[in-house]
Amino acid sequence: MQGTHAGHFLVEFDGVAALEATEVTGVGLTHEPVEIKVGTRALPVYSRGKSKIEPVTIKHAVAINSSGRELSRYFQDYSQGLTTEKRSFRVIQLREDGFTPHSIHELIDCVPKSYKPGDNKADGADAAYFMVELQPSDIIADTDG
C-alpha cells in the first residue's frame, strides 16, 4: 500500500482546484460529553454533549490560477461586511505518486479567519507563499488510508 506524498495538498475553493499547499493543520472535531451524576452512584453517566469544529490552517499555499487573488478579495469582502456568503473548501492529500488522492476533507460553510501573504525576498529563491485560516461550520472526512 502506498503512503502519502509528504507535504502535498491540493485545495479546492468552490469546487475548482485553487491552491497547492505543503501543510494543512487543525482538521478535526472535538466533542464534550455531558456528565450526569445519578443519586449515590459512584461513576457518572455520560451523554451526547456539544461539538466544536477546530479552525483549519493551510500553510505555504501557492495559487494555481487567479484563485489566490479571488481568495484574498473574498477575505477582504467578508471582513468588511460586503459579503456574508460562507464558502466551502475541499482539502485533498495526495499519495506518493503525487496524483492519486489519499484522503479528502470537505470543509463546509467556512468563515474566513485570516489571510497572510508570506515574506517575499529579493533573491527570488522562494515562491510567493501565503497562509489561510478558516473556521468550518462542519467537516466531512473521506479517508482511504
Main traits of this protein?
mainly beta, elongated, 145 residues, 6-stranded antiparallel barrel, 10 strands, 1 helix, single chain, two-stranded antiparallel sheet
- What topology, given as strand order, has the largest sheet? 1-2-6-9-8-7
SSE order: EEEEEEHEEEE
- Largest sheet data: 6 strands, antiparallel, barrel
Low-confidence stretches: none
Find the count of extended strands (DSSP E, 2+ residues). Answer: 10
Q: Structural class given helices, strands, pairing?
A: mainly beta
Question: Could you estimate the helical fraction of the residues in percent?
Answer: under 10%
Distance between the termini: 9 Å
Helix-strand blueprint:
Layout: E1 4-13, E2 16-21, E3 23-25, E4 29-36, E5 45-53, E6 56-63, H1 67-79, E7 87-95, E8 101-117, E9 130-135, E10 138-143
Antiparallel strand pairs: 1-2, 1-7, 2-6, 3-6, 4-5, 6-9, 7-8, 8-9, 8-10
What's this model, at a glance?
By secondary structure, the protein is mostly beta strands. Helix content is 9%, strand content 57%.
Explain what the structure shows.
- This protein has a six-stranded antiparallel barrel with strand order 1-2-6-9-8-7.
- With 145 residues, it is mainly beta.
- The chain is elongated.
- The model has no long low-confidence stretch (mean pLDDT 84).
- It is built from one helix and ten strands, in the order ββββββαββββ.
